[in-house]
Amino acid sequence: GTYFEHDILVKSGVSLWSGTLQASCVTIDAQGKGRGLIFSNADSSTSIVGFTVTGGVAHPEDLLGQGGGILFVKSQPKISNCVVIGNHAETGGGFFADQGSTLNFSNCRIEKNTATFMGGGGAFAGDNGLVTGCQFLDNIALSGGGLFLQKASSVQVNESYFGNNSAGNCGGGVLLIGSECTMEG
Question: Which of 66, 103, 124, 183 is buried most, with the most CB atoms less than 10 Å from its CB?
Answer without folding.
Answer: 124
